[in-house]
Amino acid sequence: MKNLTIMLSLVLSIFAGSALAKDTVLLDQTHASKGVKCASCHGSGERQAVPMLKCVQCHNTEKLAAKTADVKPTNPHNNRHFATETDCAKCHHVHKKSENLCVSCHPRFELVTP
Questions:
Q1: Would the CA dihedral through 41, 30, 20, 11 be positive or negative?
Q2: What is the DSSP string of 60-105?
Q3: Which of the two residues, 66 and 2, has the higher pLDDT score?
């Protein structure tokens, strides 16, 4: 009976993990679905981390700030620390789930980060 319980637990954890993974669309998948190839950001040589200067070639920070102007309690793309120049990678991760960097110091800033 103990072995059966362990096996059932493992099977359920696998199904739960895959269900959670389906809800999380990573930014690499979003970019790929729009036809953006890995080399477009990483270059054709050895893959390196993508600097913000590469992000802003397609994503205009002023337009992003205007688009999120009504986000409460604060605009994440135009904040008092970095204005419109917060490094994108601080919150937006391409190959893993993105995170809300603000909440580490501002617990009430429950922002959804794609």
A1: negative
A2: -HHHHHHHTTT-SS--TTSBTTTBT---GGGT--SSS----GGGGT
A3: 66
CA distance 27 to 8: 33
pLDDT of residue 17: 46
- pLDDT of 13 above 70: no
Q: What is the pTM of this model?
A: 0.69
Determine the 3-state secondary structure of 113 from DSSP: coil
End-to-end CA distance of the chain: 43
Contact call for residues 68 and 76 (beta carbons, < 8 A): yes
Report d(CA 32, CA 40) in Å as an integer. Answer: 11
Task: Give the rounded percent of residues in the chain with a pLDDT score beyond 70.
Answer: 80
